[in-house]
Design brief:
Helix content: 40-55%
Shape: globular
Distance between the termini: 32 Å
Order of helices and strands: HEEEEEHEHHHHHH
Structural class: alpha+beta
Length: 188
């Protein structure tokens, strides 16, 4: 989900090939779910077409955007699989999508095939931690404008692909705040 940190600089072709060769292709229509919050899903996958959003519904029933995965990204509820628990997030297709899915147990077997595979698994887990930690720090220390600018630098086309209210939810502000930030950036 928004795999921009060092994951983009790591050669993940071995993992991608494993999923494509051993996975099952699943077509997911726009607005359908790969997984819903509180369900179990023992799968991880690779997106060959489409786009997904990760959401979480809070105790008051409000939905929060917590991430995105795009074509050529890996997808899944890694923490739920790792801990053998139900999902803490929804993963929903934003447009018609194609995903190759493998069971998490198959992925564990892949990690155990060799020292090189174990190293790759460790690096992927470390980078997911870095991504999560950075989001946490940014939520406390960066201004909404800084979070918006950072997001647009990493994904300049995102504002054409998703509604303003979702961008606002992702960076933790109101849609009006995002509109104000956009106006300010256009007219410094």
């Amino acid at each position: 989900m928004i795999n921009e940190y060092n994951l983009s600089q790591i050669d993940l072709s071995m993992l991608k090939e494993f999923i494509l060769q051993n996975g099952t292709l699943r077509q997911i229509a726009r607005k359908d779910y790969l997984i819903r919050q509180n369900e179990t899903s023992p799968f991880v996958g690779f997106i060959t077409e489409g786009m997904f959003r990760y959401t979480r519904t809070d105790s008051a029933g409000k939905e929060h955007i917590i991430g995105y995965s795009f074509k050529d990204d890996f997808i899944g509820e890694y923490s739920a699989n790792l801990c053998h628990r139900s999902s803490i997030a929804n993963i929903q297709a934003i447009k018609d999508s194609s995903v190759y899915l493998v069971r998490h147990t198959e992925l564990e077997r892949f990690w155990n095939l060799s020292a090189e595979h174990q190293r790759l698994g460790r690096i992927v887990a470390e980078q997911l931690f870095v991504m999560t930690y950075r989001r946490l720090i940014d939520s406390y220390c960066s201004t909404p404008e800084e979070r918006y600018i950072d997001l647009m630098k990493r994904y300049p086309d995102l504002k054409e692909m998703i509604p303003l209210k979702e961008i606002a939810s992702f960076i933790g502000v109101t849609p009006e705040t995002v509109s104000s930030i956009r106006r300010k950036l256009l007219n410094p």
